[in-house]
């Protein structure tokens, strides 16, 4: 795949990104395996472990990785999806869709954003420019290995890949977004840049989840806020015909889903092939040419709504899945008794944070899997195989 204008965004060579970013960002002409080896050495020396006896698993969780289609696929042209995780997360959060789509004849690669994979304190001085550099360098590398390149992202990763695609519309076949961040779900998110020079943390808990940080420092929130403002300006001011697939929850407590829906309607919906899957507790199951609504009020499964992180999680994930070893109860971290009850309850309710969920259980957990995951992966695969490549 030829990327005629890609060098204009390879900012790694001209912007001082800081020591951590220089380690995390893939270098020009650096092979993926070489990059993995270099990054692994850095992570081994700087990571804070949840359980030191589990180092191999914890390191593997945060490492960039790729999945290749089987030889049975026999595709005439290779299709690749380059994926980026969200703020405070790691490549582990995208393991399920990467594997599922590889099984559907799509080559997938998941990258690590600077400031992640080690300890939350490494987000204190991270910049959105380093995240952009990570995207640009990874595109430069992966584009040489596939015929049609799609970009995908979860949350902040979704904002980053949307911006890149809009800036390089001739180089990207399409975009796949899971719970993309176009606006933080808060009426005071605008305060974060003002607080950042003076306040490092609003809360600061040690993580017991080896897949992500428990707390995000204010400076990193400010960077995400500034990124969303810039991405929104780019997307709404520049008309593009890039096919986009978006999956999100109407009850999302992290990102403002109403803004995502507005962005889709105004800037993405008109492109042939663009689709949205909306999970909602209040809407009935419906489907149009560009939008599918899936009701997620599922009392028989003790699920009320899909959380921000549940959209792209497989029910059989051994860590975050329905019977997984880890339960996400982070919103109770200031209340240890309730937090512990949430973690060990055998017949609990799950969903997204809100009064309706807590009315069903005083210690309800955050849903970390999508009961319709396989259907979603089928839809993403059909979208990617059917959209006309550039």
From TrEMBL:
Q: Which residues form the Serine aminopeptidase S33 domain?
A: 81-199
- The source's superkingdom equals Bacteria
Transmembrane regions listed in the UniProt entry? none
Q: Does the keyword Cell wall biogenesis/degradation apply?
A: no
Pfam families per the record? Hydrolase_4 (PF12146)
This protein's UniProt keywords:
Signal
Quick one: signal sequence residues? 1-21
Check the record and name the InterPro entries matching this protein. Answer: AB_hydrolase_fold (IPR029058), Hydrolase_4 (IPR022742)
State the name under which the record lists this protein: Carboxylesterase
Q: Which organism is it from?
A: Marinomonas piezotolerans
């Amino acid at each position: 795949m030829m990327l005629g204008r890609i060098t204009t965004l390879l900012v790694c060579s001209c912007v001082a990104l800081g020591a951590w970013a220089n380690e995390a960002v893939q270098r020009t002409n650096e092979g993926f395996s070489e990059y993995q080896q270099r990054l692994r050495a850095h992570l081994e020396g700087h990571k804070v472990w949840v359980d030191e006896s589990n180092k191999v698993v914890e390191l593997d969780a945060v490492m960039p990785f790729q999945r290749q289609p089987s030889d049975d696929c026999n595709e005439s042209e290779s299709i690749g999806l380059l994926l980026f995780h969200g703020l405070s997360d790691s490549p582990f959060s995208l393991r399920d869709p990467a594997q599922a789509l590889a099984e559907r004849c799509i080559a997938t690669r998941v990258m690590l954003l600077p400031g992640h994979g080690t300890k939350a304190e490494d987000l204190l001085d991270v910049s959105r420019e380093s995240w952009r550099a990570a995207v640009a360098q990874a595109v430069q590398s992966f584009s040489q290995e596939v015929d049609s390149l799609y970009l995908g992202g979860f949350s902040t990763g979704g904002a980053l890949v949307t911006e890149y695609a809009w800036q390089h519309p001739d180089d990207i076949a399409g975009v796949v977004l899971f719970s993309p961040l176009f606006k933080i779900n808060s009426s005071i998110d605008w305060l974060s840049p003002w607080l950042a020079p003076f306040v490092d943390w609003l809360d600061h808990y040690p993580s017991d989840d080896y897949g992500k940080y428990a707390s995000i420092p204010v400076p990193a929130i400010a960077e995400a806020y500034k990124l969303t403002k810039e991405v929104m300006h780019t997307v709404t001011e520049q008309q593009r015909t890039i096919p986009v697939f978006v999956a999100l929850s109407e009850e999302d407590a992290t990102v403002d889903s109403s803004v995502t829906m507005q962005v889709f309607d105004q800037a993405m919906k008109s492109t042939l092939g663009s689709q949205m899957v909306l999970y909602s507790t209040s809407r009935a199951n419906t489907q149009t040419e560009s939008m599918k609504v899936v009701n997620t009020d599922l009392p028989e499964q003790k699920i009320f709504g899909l959380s921000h992180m549940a959209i792209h999680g497989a029910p059989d994930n051994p860590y975050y899945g329905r019977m997984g070893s880890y339960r996400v109860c982070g919103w109770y971290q200031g209340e240890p008794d309730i937090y512990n009850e949430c973690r060990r309850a055998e017949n609990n309710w799950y969903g997204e944070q809100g009064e309706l969920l807590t009315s069903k259980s005083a210690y309800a957990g955050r849903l970390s899997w999508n009961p319709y995951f396989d259907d979603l992966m089928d839809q993403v695969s059909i979208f990617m195989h059917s959209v006309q490549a550039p």
